[in-house]
Structures are given as structure tokens and as C-alpha cells.
Design a protein that fits this description.
The complex is a heterodimer. Chain A is of the alpha+beta class. Chain A has 21 helices and 19 strands. In chain A, helix 13 packs across helix 15 and helix 15 packs across helix 17. Chain B has one domain. By secondary structure, chain B is mainly alpha-helical. Classes of the chains: A alpha+beta, B mainly alpha.
Chain lengths: 585, 90
């Protein structure tokens, strides 16, 4: 029984106070050292805390924000372009850009082939892109939603999409030269798209947000800059007339195997451009392999020698100055010598003609007779005041002034040729606009490609009397004794003037022609001016009266009906001559 | 400070913090709703543009012309077949 308590004590161990360890005497420096180390550690923590809190807060907060805050880009939509009735002519629709991080792309041959097919490219081409050492490559831009879905369905790692916009032009090639197009960055390159880039282009906005772990936006922080969508534009173009003008021009260019053609239709009352078309043209939706010829805007940016379409201005000047009246009879010999040069007509005519007949039969000799009675300065003033040699200022990109040399440098022969439209170069829109003085009773108004709320202020150039006399003389041009009976329109009285000019090549006139016709209708109260120009017609005649006048007639008939203009003549007003009169060049 | 007022203050503090949590939650919820509505608005705008474009594409004059002539057998009425009526005239 003695053992038991001993065993008990052993189980409990020694009493703490009796522990021999306590009896060991340690050197005093050890505890001090520990205390010092602990203190030192606390100081370090405090210093670190101070450093983080006070010294590098900005950096840390920035880093923090960098991890939860995102700046979202808010894309702005480019403005729509509509015609005068609100029909959409150009609109931006969302599409996607397909891009890749080449390093991340993991795929097999089969998927790659499918991808290449969806992207309209070849496997080697695609491999080249994916093999590049850049960290970001566009595989294809402006891909339509349907294709994008198919591409995403392939589920290839490393292929991503980005939202962007693509411009669509529902009217296609019909209005290509009016609208122009934008590049892949949505910046206007041609036409109205370029002219009105500032208005059409929107301003991209941005906002700072906090996103949660699954990418939802939770909160706005900081600033928001609202995106500003581009302004929608309403053009002066009438979609229906544009289509009519384009198709009629196309028919003529094909029928006469011409190199090119251009047409412009103006509203006489407001100066608005109702239609403008050029051939050859292009489809602004798919612009692959565009050539310079297709892009050329022959109405606005090309100049040509107008030929006889300029004669009415010389005659109007002579009338205005009181030098002649429509009934004045002038000597018109077959050849007229001015210095060493001589001027003739391409068709035989009587040796005396009235002013009205000179216009009707487009006689060079007769016109020169009248021009010789005028001072060069007067002619220059006349041409300048109707806009020749002046930039039309419609705001259209690339519009040209043409060439009208200062009158002081004119030699007599030059003054003579200029009176019938040679030695002067103009654009088609200038000629069309100049005819305002006949259609608007002697007034000129500025042109516009935008729909106007109010007609602009007009400026008088010639008297009402002169304009009316000119009108009735020009009506005879489309009559049976004139150069353009094919320009007649059933139900409407029309007037106009043909032009057929030899082309200048390398400083010499060659046997290539520009056939044109400028006219307006209806005579009783003109509403539209139409100018047609066909470049190098090679089949079925080359005279303005044969090539361009029928285009005028067809477009005028359809356009007047489309505009609900009541007819001012009986429907049996069209009289065809038995023999055509050819025009002088 | 007496024990009772201390308890009252703590209770108020608790209440306030709970309300804060609640309002924060409400704010987020409403914000997400707003986001959704704005997204919907954008999508509808896009759809409107799309539909307008489609309307223009379907109503383009060349298409109408072709259908009218080819499948409907229509033609432009000559002026001989046109009667013009003016308002007020008999």
C-alpha cells in the first residue's frame, strides 16, 4: 500500500514550483533581447502600416480601383441619311469584328477549315494571321451577326468579337455618287458621307463603373460622358427621281456604247438637287476593286467643254443689252472668218437667220455674230454671274470651278468660240444651275444637297423679259425645226438646248464627242431642270439631240408625274419632224 | 453614461447599419434594373434602325420596278390613258 501514493505523485508529475528547470539561472540579456526583438517587430509593423496608409495610399487605391473599376466605351451611332421623304439611304447597323490573340488560339485542322470558310478566306491565309507574333490580330472586320454566331459556335479558344458598326446603302449603285461611302473606321470618304462627316459622325462616350465577379455592372463611379449619336440628315434627293434618272442614263449609255454619262435634276423653285447620277458607278455596299473611273463624279468634279449648251447665254446677253430681238435677222454665211481661223456650221442653212432660228438650229455662225457685238467684259460678266468659273458652293466635296479665263486675255477668236461653248470648261452642275436664269425668269439661286425648309433668296441676272424670250426660243429647239425633237414630253411643254462638243485630247480636238442636253419643264411654270451628258457615244449617233435629248424626255416625263405636276399641254403635243437637223460643233 | 442609454445607442446603431445594408441592396437592385432597361432601349433602337433599313431595302425603286413589270405585268400608263383632275374644276 505504500506504493500507491508514490505512483500517484509520479502520475501527477512534480509540482510546478518544484520543477528543476525553474532553478536554472539564465543570463539576464536573453530576456532583454527577446523583449527588444518583440518591440522591434512592433515598430516594423507600425512603420509598414504608416507607409501603406500614408505614403503609398494613392498608388494602392489606384491599383484597387484598377481591379474592380472599368471604363466602358459607349459607342455612338453614325447618323442616318434619308432622302427628302424620309426613306433611308444610308444607315449604320451593328456588326462584329472577329479578332484573336494568336498565342491563345488552340484549335484543330477541321475547325480551322470551317473558320476559314466562314471568314471567306483560306486556311494558309488564316494560319499566317494566327502565326504572327503580335498579341492582337483582326481576323475579319464588319462580320454580320449570323456569321458571328456560327463562328462562336465553333468555340475556338482565343477568338473574340468586338462590336462595331457597318454602313449599309439600300439604294446600292443608284445613288452611289451622291452618298459616297465610309471606310472601316466609319469615316466618310466620298460624297455626302465625306462632306457632312462632322454632323454624321457621333462622339464616343465613356463611363467608369464597378463590375462584379461575373462582369455585371454594379455601380457608376466617377464621370459619365454620354455618347452623342451623329445627326440624321435629310437630303434634297428624291429617291424616285434618282432611280428614274439613273436607269434612263444607264439605258442611254448602254444603247450608245458610251464611255460614261452623267445626269443631274434640279428643283427650280428651291435649288435643291433632286437627283444626281453618274456612270460608270459602283456599289457602295461592296467596294472591292474600285477604279478611278467608277469613283469619278462627272456632275460635280469633272469639267468638260460644254459646246452649244452655252449658246443661250450669249444670246441672252445680246437680248439683254438690246442689241437684238428674237425677230432680228442676221447674216449667217456658211463660213465666218475671224483672223486666220474660220467658223462654220455642220449643216446647211439659209444665209440669213433670225435670232430665234439661230437658237433653234444651234448655229455657230449666228451665235458668233451676236457675240461679236458684245464686249469681252460683258460676256465674262454674264458667264461669271451665272456661275461659270465659280465654285458652285453646294458643300459637296471636290466640286470644281471650271475654267473661264479673265476677259483681258481673250483674243477675238477665243471670244467667238467661247460664245458657243468652246475654250471654256464647266461642270455639268454649273450648266444645270446656270439654266436657272431661263427657268426662274432671270433669277439665280444657290443649290443645296440638303432638304430646305425655305427657298433661298434669289439674285437677278437678266430681266424677266429676256428670260421669257429665251424660253420661247428654247421651246422651239425641241420643236420639229429644232435640234432636239426627241426631247419632247407628252403632256408637257418643255424647252432646252442641245450640245455636242468635240473632245480635247492633248490640246487637239479629236473625233470623240460629248453629247449633252440641258432643259427644263414645264414651260408655263418651270419646276425642274435636267442636265444630261453622255461621254463618247459611239453607236446610234453622237449628237446631243440623238443621245442626250431622249434621256431628258424620259426623265422629265416620269419626274413630272412623280411630282404631281399638272400637264400644261395636250397629250398630242409631240410632233416629230420628217428630217432631223444636226447641230454645229 | 447609464447602462440603459448605452443599450439604446447600440440598438440604434444596429438598426442604422441594417438600414444601410438594405438601402445599398435596393440601390444595386434598381441600378441593375436600370441597366437592363437601358440595354433594352439600345436594342430596340438598333432594331428600329434595322427595320427601317429593311423597309428601305424592300421598298427600293429598282425592286418595285422589277416586280411590277416582271411578275405583276404592269406598265406605265401613257399620257393618253391619263386623266388629270384638278380641285374645284368640273
Amino acid at each position: 500500500m505504500m506504493r500507491a501514493p508514490t505512483r500517484k505523485a509520479a502520475a501527477r508529475g512534480l509540482a510546478f514550483s518544484a520543477s528543476p528547470v525553474l532553478a536554472v539561472k539564465l543570463p539576464a540579456w536573453r530576456s532583454r533581447l527577446t523583449l527588444f526583438l518583440l518591440f522591434g517587430a512592433f515598430v516594423a509593423v507600425a512603420v509598414r502600416a504608416f507607409w501603406l496608409q500614408a505614403m503609398s495610399t494613392d498608388f494602392l487605391q489606384r491599383q484597387g480601383a484598377y481591379r474592380y473599376a472599368r471604363t466602358l466605351e459607349l459607342p455612338a451611332v453614325r447618323g442616318k441619311i434619308t432622302d427628302r421623304y424620309g426613306e433611308v439611304m444610308a444607315s449604320s447597323l451593328p456588326v462584329k469584328a472577329i479578332w484573336a490573340i494568336p498565342e491563345d488560339v488552340e484549335t484543330d485542322k477541321d475547325k480551322l477549315r470551317q473558320l476559314a470558310q466562314l471568314l471567306d478566306t483560306t486556311v494558309p491565309e488564316l494560319n499566317k494571321k494566327l502565326g504572327s507574333d503580335r498579341s492582337f490580330v483582326y481576323l475579319k472586320r464588319q462580320v454580320e451577326e449570323k456569321t458571328v454566331e456560327q463562328i462562336l459556335a465553333l468555340d475556338i479558344k482565343g477568338i473574340h468579337t468586338r462590336n462595331e458598326y457597318r454602313r449599309y446603302y439600300p439604294s446600292g449603285l443608284v445613288a452611289a455618287h451622291v452618298l459616297g461611302f465610309t471606310n472601316v473606321e466609319d469615316i466618310g470618304q466620298e460624297g455626302i458621307e465625306r462632306a457632312q462627316q462632322k454632323l454624321l459622325g457621333g462622339v464616343t462616350g465613356s463611363r467608369r463603373v464597378i463590375k462584379d465577379n461575373i462582369g455585371r455592372v454594379i455601380e457608376d463611379i466617377g464621370y459619365i460622358r454620354e455618347p452623342q449619336d451623329g445627326t440624321d440628315l435629310t437630303l434634297s434627293i428624291d429617291g424616285k427621281i434618282q432611280y428614274i434618272a439613273f436607269t434612263e442614263l444607264q439605258k442611254a449609255v448602254e444603247q450608245h456604247h458610251a464611255k460614261a454619262g452623267a445626269i443631274v435634276v434640279l428643283d427650280v423653285k428651291t435649288g435643291e438637287v433632286l437627283a444626281m447620277a453618274n456612270l460608270p458607278t459602283y456599289n457602295p455596299n461592296t467596294r472591292q476593286g474600285l477604279t478611278g473611273a467608277q469613283l469619278r463624279n462627272r456632275v460635280m468634279t469633272d469639267t468638260y467643254e460644254p459646246g452649244s449648251t452655252l449658246k443661250p447665254f450669249t444670246v441672252a446677253l445680246a437680248l439683254e443689252r438690246g442689241l437684238v430681238t428674237p425677230a432680228t435677222v442676221l447674216d449667217t454665211p456658211a463660213k465666218l472668218s475671224i483672223g486666220p481661223a474660220s467658223i462654220g456650221d455642220s449643216h446647211a442653212h439659209a444665209s440669213t437667220m433670225s435670232v430665234a432660228q439661230i437658237i433653234q438650229q444651234s448655229s455657230n455662225v449666228g451665235t458668233v455674230r451676236m457675240a461679236m457685238k458684245c464686249e469681252p467684259r460683258e460676256m465674262w460678266d454674264m458667264f461669271t454671274s451665272v456661275g461659270f468659273g465659280q465654285v458652285p458652293r453646294t458643300g459637296f466635296p471636290g466640286e470644281v470651278a471650271g475654267r473661264l479665263r479673265p476677259y483681258k486675255t481673250w483674243r477675238p477668236i477665243e471670244q467667238a468660240t467661247m460664245s458657243y461653248g468652246h475654250g471654256i470648261s464647266v461642270s455639268l452642275i454649273q450648266v444645270a444651275r446656270a439654266y436657272m436664269i431661263f427657268a426662274r425668269n432671270g433669277e439665280m439661286i444657290p443649290l443645296s444637297f440638303m432638304k430646305l425648309a425655305q427657298p433661298p433668296v434669289a439674285q437677278r441676272v437678266v430681266s424677266e423679259r429676256t428670260a421669257q424670250q429665251m424660253r420661247s426660243m428654247m421651246e422651239k429647239v425641241v420643236g420639229p425645226g429644232g435640234t432636239a425633237p426627241l426631247a419632247q414630253v407628252r403632256g408637257y411643254r418643255v424647252a432646252g438646248k442641245t450640245g455636242t462638243a468635240h473632245k480635247l485630247e492633248g490640246g487637239r480636238y479629236v473625233n470623240k464627242y460629248v453629247a449633252s442636253f440641258v432643259g427644263f419643264a414645264p414651260i408655263s411654270d418651270p419646276r425642274i431642270i435636267i442636265a444630261v451628258m453622255v461621254d463618247e457615244p459611239t453607236a446610234g449617233g453622237h449628237f446631243g439631240g440623238q443621245v442626250a435629248a431622249p434621256v431628258f424626255s424620259n426623265v422629265a416625263a416620269s419626274a413630272l408625274r412623280a411630282m404631281n405636276v399638272p400637264p400644261d399641254a395636250s397629250v398630242e403635243n409631240v410632233i416629230m419632224p420628217t428630217q432631223m437637223i444636226t447641230e454645229s460643233m | 453614461m447609464s447602462n440603459r442609454s448605452l443599450i439604446t445607442v447600440v440598438a440604434l446603431l444596429m438598426l442604422c447599419s441594417l438600414l444601410l445594408v438594405n438601402s445599398q441592396y435596393q440601390a444595386r437592385r434598381l441600378f441593375i434594373e436600370l441597366e437592363r432597361a437601358q440595354l433594352r432601349q439600345r436594342n430596340l433602337e438598333t432594331e428600329w434602325d434595322q427595320l427601317q433599313y429593311e423597309q428601305s431595302a424592300l421598298a427600293k425603286h429598282s425592286r418595285i420596278d422589277a416586280i411590277a413589270r416582271a411578275s405583276l405585268g404592269m406598265s406605265v400608263p401613257g399620257s393618253a390613258r391619263t386623266q388629270y383632275l384638278s380641285v374645284g374644276a368640273r
